[in-house]
Amino acid sequence: MLQSFLNAWRLPDLRKKLLFTAFIIAVYRLGCYIPVPGVDVKAVQQAFSNSAGGVLDFYNLFTGGGLQRVALFAMGIMPYITASIIMQLLTMVIPKLEALMKEGEAGQKKVNQYTRYFTVILALIEAIGFVFLFDKQYNAFTNVGGLTPERFWLVVFSLTVGTALVMWMGELITQRGIGNGISLMIFASIVSRLPGGLQALFRLNPAYWVLMAVVSVAVIGFVIYITEGQRRIPIQYAKRVVGRKVYGGQSTYLPLRINMAGVIPVIFASSVLLFPVTLMQMTRWSWAVSIAKNIGPNSWWYVLAEVLLIIAFTYFYTAVQFNPIDQADNLKKYGGFIPGIRPGRPTAAYLDRVLTRITLPGSLFLAGIVLLPTVLYKVAHIPFSFGGTSLLIVIGVALDTMKQMESQLLMRHYEGFLK
Questions:
Q1: pLDDT in tens, 1-18
Q2: 89: how many CB neighbours lie within 10 A of its CB?
Q3: What is the pTM of this model?
Q4: CATH of the domain at 266
Q5: What is the DSSP string of 246-290?
Q6: Is 101 exposed, middle or buried (0-12, 13-18, 19+ CB in 10 A)?
Q7: Does 349 share its domain with 373?
């Protein structure tokens, strides 16, 4: 019956795709409110309300509060994101994976299958870690009879299966809905916390409302401008005569985005800094707790280290995403060249030089967006509920989804959103 229901949504109708996407996201959000059996949820929620900052709060943001509720989808899509990033990095050091990526669609399917298996393994490991954390740190099993082996495996199995279901639903949206399913699920999780943030803001002085409205509009416009900004490298293809036909000779361009790394450097930097701080807060050593307080998320030392790590990770991840040597070889293979630049190694050196220059403003842009909420809180004492990572994800996913819907409308001979 489920397969017949899914087959009914294969028709290329934009309305059905939108309804299907909304239905899957609604099911996902519902799963973030269904608690896992055998856990004292109130104890975990009380522990989250008493803590500020840390890797668990960062994790909880991407699950829309599902982690503090110990819900079925408490781990959300984070294991899949981690597995995808690790697989991308492994393609640089494992020749077999690199060869699969270059095989086209068939190779990409195999890599995606490996990513799914790796996601389940990571979800199992993280679920075991969360169970021990809830038991030792939050006493989540004290009032329900203790952590027995049966209860332990029930919670671990529930969290792991929940992650697998979220991954499956995200791929369903990507295949038969609108936009990238994984991104839309994260978008829904972040936006679900918007009413609580607005409620906290409206409790402040009304003058702050106008200030936040101006800042929000300016930030959104700036993020859209930088996200869509690109350096267009002109490409000229040589003419080739095959029989009586002439191929090539057209001019095009190679787009290099200013923010090619997206939001990944921000996630890397936040995870690297928050993880040791959270571990030190969980220990009983006084010196470790003192260091964690001094370099916590609200300190300027933490902000400085995060800015430096974001810049470094932006250059690193951009190098992973774009290989100037491979791009130069592909241009040479198909008869393309950059006017004024010789094909081959000079083209690769030119692309690397341009990419290095435009990556700097992109990394500074990411660092500035992440720094903005801290500055607002430190200077104006305004509790900005959404961090830089949340803003980048929400705006980026919204832009990508609008482009997808625009292309769907144009394919069906409509004028689109913009005439």
A1: 445 544 544 445 777 888
A2: 14
A3: 0.76
A4: 1.10.3370.10
A5: EE---EEEEEEETTTTTTHHHHHHHHHHHHHHHHHHHS--HHHHH
A6: middle
A7: yes
